[in-house]
Amino acid sequence: MNFSAVVVAAGSSTRAGPGAPKPWRSLGGRPILRWSVEALSRAGAREIIVVTAPERTADADEALAGLASWKAVPGGVTRAESVQAGLAALSTPDEEAVLVHDAARPFVTSAHVQSLLVALAEAEGAVPALPVADTLKRGVDIVAETVSRNGLWRAQTPQAFRLRTLRQAYGAWPADAEPTDDAAVVERAGGKVALVPGDPLLMKLTYPEDFAMAEQLAGGRRIVRTGFGVDAHRWGPGEAVWLCGVKIDHDQTLVGHSDADAGLHALTDAILGAIGEGDIGEHFPPTDPQWKGASSDRFLVHAAKLVAAKGGSLLNVDVTLICERPKIRPHRDAMRARLAELLALPLDRVSVKATTTEGMGFTGRGEGLMAQAVATVETPA
């Protein structure tokens, strides 16, 4: 099911203690706002509206640099006003789904989104919720009564609705009342709101002590991915060859649309593969004349920037060059240093090796050169 999202980040965060409002604070080295926007984007949101305080719309550009399909709009005095501002900014068709999410709940995942969209197929709204586990008391200083917790739930976000349903429900909401969440607005309008299993990790950062707990959780919510790349080029007339960003004098050159640096091409593909971003031909088509003779450094740096845009980091790269000639060992240190420079990696995280095929195959016959590469990347879960 297609969906868009409104991320509410316009609150003043008065209960969170000293410092910037919650969306702009750092969590695991990234702004809290970025966690939710990245997660919703990975889950497939076609459009994301970020609602901020009017004076913070410019800050969103910095917090969300490198991410696509989002825009910031100024919010209102109340959360309800901010949500309605976000809904008004959507270009999504009315019959499609919209998720409304609090930026202060940074640990949303694609699994959360999918469960809400499934439930929305048979209801006007869907809310993740946890059953109340603690005994409930009512009173001031002295207990007046113990309240049954049977049938009571703690509602979380994101909450899912048909866009038309939520817009119409807000249109009918009394101007002098403030809803505690969006589901309450749809409920009052007569809509059926489904409960789906919530998640303790969808905790809302509210008080100062919440941030210390979230920081511990953030450290464990990253995954390691591995990508593999292969490239090969045939030999042709020439006087030098580019391999792993280093120019080597040789009696032949590799033939290709760019500089035919098979090492960089294989490594670029490995990085793209690790983050699920296709291959080098999709980003730099060989049919495009602008890449004719281009330095393959540009391809590798582009792939590294895509990793950073996803909030990830390169951990290690390893390239193996397969050829009879030229000899790689005399140039290996220079190749490692160049790759480390291009990828901003410590030298001990960069490996370049070489082997022959003992005269077998096209590399053994001296018809071409092959490169294989492995890249290890860490990204948010």
How would you characterize the overall build of this protein?
The chain is an alpha/beta fold. The strands form five sheets. Strands 1, 4, 5, 6, 7, 10, 11 and 12 form an eight-stranded mixed sheet that branches. Strands 16-13-19-17-18 form a five-stranded mixed sheet. Helix 5 packs across helix 6. The protein is elongated, with a radius of gyration of 27 Å. It has helices at about 30-40, 55-65, 80-90, 110-120, 165-170, 180-190, 210-220, 260-275, 280-285, 295-310, 330-345, 360-365; strands spanning about 5-10, 25, 30, 50, 70-75, 95-100, 125-130, 135-140, 140-145, 155, 160, 195, 220-235, 240-245, 245-250, 250-255, 315-320, 350-355, 370-380. It folds into two domains: about 5-220, Spore Coat Polysaccharide Biosynthesis Protein SpsA, Chain A; about 220-380, 2-C-methyl-D-erythritol 2,4-cyclodiphosphate synthase (60s Ribosomal Protein L30, Chain: A, 2-Layer Sandwich). It is built from twelve helices and 19 strands.
Looking at the structure, the CATH topology of the largest domain is Spore Coat Polysaccharide Biosynthesis Protein SpsA, Chain A
Number of domains: 2
Number of strands: 19
What is the highest CATH level, the class of the largest domain? Alpha Beta
Give the termini separation: 22 Å
CATH architecture of the largest domain, by name, is Alpha-Beta Complex
Q: Beta-sheet strand percentage?
A: 25-35%
Main structural class? alpha/beta
Helix content: 25-40%
Q: C-alpha Rg, in Å?
A: 27 Å
Fourth-tier CATH superfamily name of the largest domain: Spore Coat Polysaccharide Biosynthesis Protein SpsA, Chain A
Q: Which stretches of 5+ consecutive residues score pLDDT under 50? A: none
Shape: elongated
Largest sheet, if any? 8 strands, mixed
Number of helices: 12
Mean pLDDT: 92
